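debug: dumping io for the single-chain case to check the tokenizer round-trip. Nothing else runs in this session.
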Amino acid sequence: MLNQFSRTQLLIGQKGMERLFNARVAVFGIGGVGGYTVEALARSGIGTLDLIDDDRVCLTNLNRQLLATRKTVGQYKVDVAEQRIHEINPDAVVHTYKTFYAKDVIWVCSDMYRPFERSISFALPNASWAIDHFHVVMKANEAVDDVRRKLQSDMPKRERIKTKRGFAYTLKKRMDDLTEEEAEKIKLARRSEKTAPFAVAYDLKEDFFNIYDNNPSSKEAAQQAFAEWEASIPQDELYDKFRDLAKTVHNFYDQIFAYWDCPIAISNGFTECTNRLIRENNCRGRGYSFEVLKARTLFRRKNLDLMFQNDLVTQNFGPSIPENEPVFHFEGSKNDTSYDDDEDDDYEPFPEEDDIGVEEPED
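debug: decoded output
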């Protein structure tokens, strides 16, 4: 028998729907983002919602907030949200709290943006600020790419080191993730005085990542590892970007190493992943219909696996879906063999100038 969640159940199955019905989610702040979040949660079938906000709808909210209408101006946002949730799903349990929730927030995780310090201290006086490690280590990738760009400016195109997805891409990969071919090309770079700086930069990048990876529970050990890493940066101006990274760490020293003080894993990765999807769709989606953009955003391998597990793919829902490959190649598949070693323009996920390296020396 059809109900308002029948389409969702086709995707995630009965057990998935039961998990949503039994789930409880708290939303802090029912404004521009929170209002849409509450709407999505209610329409997804979440069983219990806790709404926390002490603010009322005002006239200036009308341009961007879902819950703001002429009729709701002056009403508490949590009350408006509760009414809307019950109009969508009368069976949902809603708890409202007309309060500004701050005193019990003890950790805030964000990127490196100095104005956050004042905002956090004002709004969340009991909270400690930690910098998400992703925003720190990404600077090492930027530094290794800076070295690559400087080197390539003096090297002719015929002297490139080639890998299937481009040497620039290879240099940004972690050592454990390198293919046999990629590892060999980095080893090859060490053998030539002209290309050895590629390997030096790669090692500096890896050593910086390892400050986190090799010291997951010891703040003191991480601080010592950083000091040793900073001392290992060559004096050549070619590596100035790595010195800039060291200065950045010193500028945010307390907040970066506060990461180790938090008793649980802390990250703003969900926000960053969402932002990345938005940027990627904005860049690649121009000219596509809304339906295609929605599919590109919502498609996940996990969803497809659930469809197979619940025998939904064989029930004539649209065209056949391949089991062992993506429905479409959005970012390139690891099984994609369409790259040609002999092509001059190697794949580069961050389009820049030509990748440069050297040909393998003769024995």
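debug: round-trip ok. The longest strand covers residues 24-28.
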